[in-house]
Amino acid sequence: MATPHNVVIIGAGFGGIGMAIRLERAGYRDVVVLEKAGSIGGTWRDNTYPGAACDVPSHLYSFSFEKRTDWTRRFPPQPEILEYLEHCARKYGVLERVRFGTEVTGASFDEAAGLWRIATTGGELTARVLVAACGQLNRPALPPIPGRDAFAGTSFHSARWDHGADLRGKRVAVIGTGASAVQIIPEIAREAGALTVFQRSAPYVIAKPDRPYRDWEKALLAAVPGTHALSRAKTYTLYESRALGFIKYPKLMRVVERQFRKELAARVPDPALRARLVPDYPMGCKRILISDDYYPALTRPNVEVVTEPIARLTEGAVVTADGAEHPADVVVYATGFASTDFLAPMRITGRGGRDLNDAWRGGAAAHLGITVHGFPNLFLLYGPYTNLGHNSIIYMLESQHRYVLGCLAAMRRAGLDWIEVRAEAQAAFDRDMQDRLHGTVWEAGCTSWYKTENGKVTNNWPGFTFAYRNATRRPDPRDFHAHRTP
Q: Do 344 and 418 touch, CB atoms closer than 8 A?
């Protein structure tokens, strides 16, 4: 067996690249990043659909240690975010550490050796520490619609966009009205002959305060020290204040909801169409979307919004529960991701042969969203309870990076082979999360990708991001079992 690596990271998106950079800067040289695709980027590599962009401003949706002053827009489009990640990977030497085309199929902890044995499509390797940076939005979810395979036209998921498909003049069906759909629909409505939007649940879509950065603004950000930091701090503070409505005082969302209804009335004059676009759940229960062109696109004469449930697909149509057939040449599944499965389909086995999928059968749980009892030296990035509805996930990832480094530094100082979070520490954290989630807007009576099938919210952090940063400032030794080989 080859010499084990110090750290193996699964995934080369924001989480994995940032972790590799922080490890390098902390002096860890033997770090390997395993990436199943042929390039880096994670979700920003996979989602190349028309109109793909971020809904967090660029100055905040970037690493704190690698500022960029020449973003073209306030809300960055997908190609720019991917280019930024590639720049970071090149600048900090991450690319040399990535093994592309290497998919992890499973990993098991060898307690006697104190190592993770990692099975990949390129063979087995071992590591003292395993970091899973797979994210929550990496496995496209296709709906179990009867006859889906019978459809004879072109069909694909939004995260696997078929750029060879010519939509000009075609009859296009978009299934889903989530975050991807509200960006896709305005783009393809301009070229499709007929566009049918199948809506199961109406989203809240509010104005997007986007605009290009002027040349003088970019020059100022680059030339004057502190201006970029000020812009970042201002944006952070504005977005952080939104947590009050999500978590502390859900009734505040009613004010925003009233404004939404006023704007919807102004953008959609047809009362019948407008009625179909009013959500039937409290604002914030599902992800709030931002767009300036989604509602205008739905009012185009070549666009139809269908709210009847889909019964099945035929060779050339989408059939709804009322028996109506909606002819289609192309079907786009904008149906989101398997967000609550986290590390699936990998099989992760911990001490005593404990299977992570079995441990998480009632819903994923991890102490601080990072460590799991029974799985020593395994660290999750963007794990359970770390998603946000109001701020930048990059801020959360950087908090997790620091926590992982703190754990590794403590192990190094004490000469430990591995550490494992105590069952009682993880259980206490999980109880605290569920107690704090009770009464939040996410539990206000809707289904969403934040929840498991049994209705348990496992994805979101029920608090301010600065509170999470404080909680992860340094690992508490009392939370862990420690092991040193005699």
A: no
Residues 105, 158 within the same domain: no
Residue 80 lies in a domain: no
Query: Where is 320: in which H helix or E strand?
Result: strand 317-320
Residues 369 and 476 in one domain: yes
- The Cα–Cα gap between 363 and 381 comes to 17
Residue-wise pLDDT for 460-483, tens only, equals 999 999 999 999 999 999 999 999
Q: Is the pLDDT of residue 486 over 70?
A: no
pTM: 0.94
- Total domains in the chain come to 2
Whether 85 maps to a domain, the answer reads no
| pLDDT for residue 393 | 96
Model confidence at 67: pLDDT above 90:
yes
18 plus 115 within the same structural domain: yes
State the residue range of the domain holding 321: 148-203+250-333
Is the CB of residue 457 less than 8 Å from the CB of residue 437?
yes
Query: Which residue has tokens 């950087």?
Result: 398
Which SS3 state, helix, strand or coil, does residue 44 take?
Answer: helix
| 127 phi-psi bin (left φ>0, alpha ψ -120 to 50, beta other) | beta
The DSSP letter of residue 445 is S
